[in-house]
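Allow me, if you will, to draw on your knowledge of protein folds for a short while. Thank you for your consideration; the sequence and its tokens are set out here:
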Amino acid sequence: MARETENTVNTESAQDTPLGPAATRFLDYLRDVRQLSPHTISNYQRDLLSLQRYCEASGRADIGSLAEADIRGWVGQLRRQGLAGGSIQRSLSATRSFYNFLGRESGLLRNPAASVQAPRKPRKLPKTLDADQVNQYLCFDSESVTARRDSAMAELFYSSGLRLAELASLEVDDIDPQAKLLTVTGKGRKTRTVPVGSAALKAIEHWLEVRPPAAADSGDSRALFTSNRGRRISVRNIQQRLKLQGRKSGMRQDVHPHMLRHSFASHMLESSGDLRAVQELLGHANISTTQIYTHLDFQHLAKVYDAAHPRAKRRKDD
């Protein structure tokens, strides 16, 4: 009976708590218990302050009076203010976490944000290079140690559609040059086997001929791609090297690892039409992620149609 009374008191106390102090306790929890970064805590604070101001303007300044309709009204206001879908999603996530925290404190608080969804973000089509641009990009004008490594990395990105982290974590033993296969460890520590093209294998062979010895005090002795000091190359360094090669080769846009991955996927789908195979090669858990490349393929076909079909061209007298 005493415990039931204590729970009732805690619940009633939480129901009457103003949003401001409750949010302060939540932010203290994020900082002291969960030890989130100051940047993340600042974002949460900004989101909850926005909710607090909306509720006070609506005459609903206490936690217990907030309903799902209030959260939906707040989301609608954020949309009218021009906030992007991703930012609204983050605000909702902060609000759900806030009410989950209060629920653990009181035991009975309902989460009014639980079923409210943010507006969907428009899905941007990935930027790709066409085949001629890829050939232009992959023409390295040097045989230096660094150029051999950068050429091998770029060729492998385009040959096998690897993610940046996947390439950075590769070991020498992950490649089977005889079978022309590569074992990749992707998201969720899932492994997959992908083919490697002859051009990429040749570039890797040239790189291994001059690869610096591993640093004596590091665990990078089997890393496929290393720095000049023999340590595993960082993802940031990979990005910088690929961007630099793009400028050297005269590309009009910055080239990054994912652009080469996107180009690989688009060209594979354009040539084969086999969406399932491309899904496996990319390591996508859901085929809907791979389907975005069908839109790229359709864009290409639409351009060809507009340029070639007599009835697609606008006549001068129209």
The chain is about 60% helix and 5% strand. Residues 1-16 have pLDDT under 50 and may be disordered.
